[in-house]
Amino acid sequence: NGDHAFISGHGGFFVVRLDDLPDGLIETVAQVPVNLNSDEEFDDVQGIAVDETGTFIFIATDSSRAVASYSFNPDSGAVEGPLDILFDGLPLFENLPGATSRGRYHAETERFYISGRRGTIVTVDVSDPEDLKLISVWKNSTYEGEVQDVRVVDFGSGPRVLMVTDGEGFSILDPDDGM
User: pTM here?
Assistant: First the structure.
């Protein structure tokens, strides 16, 4: 949302207030440690996105290969959760490759798109943040590197998924194909 930035990192994520910029200092309003599988290591949060209301945060982790949702109060800066967690061990989720660098929320479809490893994109239905649902794990058959970004764009003929790779290449995918 316009008043806050959501920053992913090693061990979790944090939220900063931006409304005093450029004259004031950035204020950290929440630091959220993330350990989704409750082991001894905190997770590397790679993908992070916020819904259009600014009240739900969606994260993708690399270390535990999971997706989670949190609630966010823009007035107080309070973060609560996780509300729900999808793990690698779920049926259809067996080959989740881990997140690389970015997660994108698409408001029209209420989906969270996650850039993955080994040429993979993970799509999660986040219409109910307390009941996340895996839609697809899409694998590029000719590219084995990391996906850097995934966006839904309309080039004039309807929405398409634009996948950007770390080799400075891209692919345009049809969202009706499970995306």
Answer: 0.85
